[in-house]
Amino acid sequence: MNLRRIILVTVCSLPFSLSLSFAVGGISRADQPCQAYLDTSRGIDDEKNNCPITVGNFSIRGTFSSSNWQASFWAYEPAYYILHVKNKQNGNTVNLTGFNVTGTTSRPQYRFTDSERNVNYIITFRYSDPNTLRLEIYQNNRAIANELLVRESDKLIGGP
Q: What pTM was computed for the model?
């Protein structure tokens, strides 16, 4: 008899529990790999991206900095992203463009390559924090930087 009651209460309360979870942000879907590509099948450049930099009220577009680095990141047009990075210690800057989206739907990564210097730049962010991104820089697979940068402004620096 007790087992029947437990089952009945569980089954009856399940819809209420589910509705509460959706009201407070939903049940998180399983983390998926980022998938991004340019669809030109209708004669226009249509970016398909399950890890966009702007969605709803969220935007990671802007300029971010730490004591060592300053980075400006944005989409110039569909499937054409720009990363401007400044080393605050020596004043060196680099402007990079690309469309290499990896990572997962909870931690998207946008990757840029400076092929002349064999340097890779990775921007990682989380949708829960539009004011912070991670900047990783690697040269010949050796880490040069791995820092959190906080939003400095929505103003963009650098560019094509």
A: 0.80
